[in-house]
Amino acid sequence: VQYATARGVRIMVELDLPAHSMSLWRAKPELFVQDCPAAQWSRSPSARFPNEEQPLPDVSNPEWWRLLRSMVTEIAEIFPEAYFHGGADEVNPGCWEKSATTRRFMAKQGLKTSLDVVDYFHQKYQQIVADANRTMMYWDGFWWKYGADASRASWSNFTVLRNTTAATIRGITDGHDAAEWNATLARGIPA
């Protein structure tokens, strides 16, 4: 990190949750929903899941939130970047939908659908990131739901990024559309 910083390279960590949490599930299965089909699957590194049965964190378990807070805090201590990428893509809430534990939690919290659970998850996650004095960033399709305190990382194209910044929302692109970016810069960014 010091080597990169000394050379002007910024490193933004992405902890893409809740969907991309397979390694966490393998290490701490007790913090994931236990009463959905994915809970019964092998934790071997070669195990594959039907997408609708991906293991998801148990949002009703305070230990999950303690672990997440601990990870975010440690990452923030190591990496000085002001932005923290929360991912948020490719969530299939099938496990939460099939879980009686999650459904009881939803009723207690007044959450009506599994997408409400996704929102609940990201609102808590974003607060944990804010508590670590970082600004949350999400992939396309998710940033808008979580308020002005979140930024957008675009994998789509330059037009999406231009529209994002035109709306005075912070954003970056992954650069895969560099030809369009360079062509636009060469002729001047349209107002």
Report what the structure shows.
With 191 residues, this protein is an alpha/beta fold. The protein contains eight helices and four strands, in the order αααβαααββαβα. It has helices spanning 2-6, 22-27, 62-78, 94-98, 100-109, 114-131, 158-166, 178-187; strands at residues 83-87, 135-139, 150-154, 171-173. Strands 1-2-3-4 form a four-stranded parallel β-sheet, with helices on one face. Strand 3, helix 7 (158-166) and strand 4 (171-173) form a beta-alpha-beta unit. Helix 3 (62-78) crosses helix 6. The longest helix is centred in the middle third of the chain and has 18 residues, at 114-131. It is globular and about 50 Å long. The relative contact order is 0.13. The model has no long low-confidence stretch (mean pLDDT 79).
Question: How can the largest sheet be summarized?
Answer: 4 strands, parallel
- CA-CA gap between termini: 37 Å
Beta strand count? 4
What is the number of helical segments per DSSP (H or I, 4+ residues)? 8
For the CA atoms, what is the radius of gyration? Answer: 18 Å
Shape: globular
Q: Which spans of ≥5 residues are poorly predicted at pLDDT below 50?
A: none
Helix content: 40-55%
* Fraction of residues in β-strands: 5-15%
Average pLDDT level: 79
Order of helices and strands: HHHEHHHEEHEH
The assigned structural class equals alpha/beta
